[in-house]
Amino acid sequence: MRIEIRGDKLKITDSIKNQIEEKLGKLDQYFNQPEEIKAYVVVRVKNNEQIIEVTIPTPKFTLRAETAHEDLYAAINLSVDKLERQIRKNKTKLKKKFKDALRYEMMEEMEEKDPEEELLISKRKTIDLKPMDEEEAILQMELLGHDFFIFKNVDTDNISIVYKRKDGKYGIIDTN
Q: Structure pTM?
């Protein structure tokens, strides 16, 4: 994992840098290709507290931990613990979602073409809409590698579409 460390009103010494790199380096075991993952670390001081913010954007989800403590090294350890819990939680979610994604892809492959379709339509799909929240829909979309995902919004009970915007954020289109 590549680590970018920045101090805000604090000089990052070699010992602080080494401690952060050593502790965050333990997270490499959770990633398939840790050399492609980049961690952003901001260390700052506010009153008597040492605050460490760690953000690790991954292709499937973003990990983030912010910890304040009187001892900077304790704050580093607490942040790494938080990140580890988030990784385990997301890995479990991804494994569950992966099974659903495989089922969806198998359904796509089993579709048959109707010979009476117009020439402009090259493929027609029928999907079952599973009720889910927006976060779950984004996760499904990322797992499938699509730019959009249609789902039944559990909060509004409407059909919704989540899509990836050009700025990297997500958009939602709701129907009535």
A: 0.53
